């Protein structure tokens, strides 16, 4: 492999607070998450009316730069610690912390800091601080598990395992990857690249990285296989790694339709998406190990009385 990037596996409630805020504010995406159907409406009832009205505006991007600051924060044992640190951060220091990683930095960093602090403080007070500690315990357990796994497998394989099919190619410019468990946006992985750095917020479902739910995994696999076009995509990828355009030519469908199919296959963990220094997918390949485990998955469910959840 090329120069291998380092990998940091982090757990902090700060990341989940930010991720939950993102899940709420991005209404169009929330339906694709494994949240209960009424989650957003129930959450809205917890918020002051004026705050809920303000959050209907989706133009403010909470994740990208705030996650970058969280990754560098020396104080993030609790959300309150991080917010205190963020509030004390001069605009000049914010610029210095982001400048190595971000090409375009707004001039009004002080205003952005103040608004971020106000919104996240209110969100933490009215929603996140009331969440069950079991969710955070599950995330912490997953991070601990991956730290142990990191002792025996290389970084790209570890990321592929944690994300269920995202492969980050080693490149000359990529130096560091921060791998963080998150629950609110499952089954989505939230991936961002900066100059020489990437943040990967991978999905955890009831500690599923640690204790796999055989029924959920089996359903995701078999539902994806029950489609002729997806089977053709898988057969094509069994021969070689392909770009989206190459898959489109092989399957004979519109690119948007092929993209829909590969997204479903990727989320089910049947294929991997390859990334190199950007969030644009470079190509897709098959995950052979999943198919090798399929007979065992079926046997475990049929004969070992797999979970009914």
TrEMBL record:
Can the keyword Transcription be found in this entry's annotation? yes
Which branch of life, at top level?
Bacteria
Q: Where is the HTH arsR-type domain?
A: 210-309
Name the InterPro entries on file.
Answer: ArsR-like_HTH (IPR011991), HTH_ArsR_DNA-bd_dom (IPR001845), HTH_MetalResp_TranReg (IPR051081), WH-like_DNA-bd_sf (IPR036388), WH_DNA-bd_sf (IPR036390)
Which Gene3D superfamilies does this UniProt record tie to the protein? Winged helix-like DNA-binding domain superfamily/Winged helix DNA-binding domain
Q: Which SUPFAM superfamilies match?
A: Winged helix' DNA-binding domain (SSF46785)
**Organism from which the protein derives:** Brevibacillus borstelensis AK1
* GO MF annotations in UniProt: DNA binding; DNA-binding transcription factor activity
| DNA-binding listed as a keyword | yes
- What protein am I looking at? Transcriptional regulator
Going by the UniProt record, its keywords in alphabetical order are: DNA-binding, Transcription, Transcription regulation
Q: Which PROSITE patterns match?
A: HTH_ARSR_2
Listed SMART domains: HTH_ARSR (SM00418)
Organism lineage reads as: Bacteria, Bacillati, Bacillota, Bacilli, Bacillales
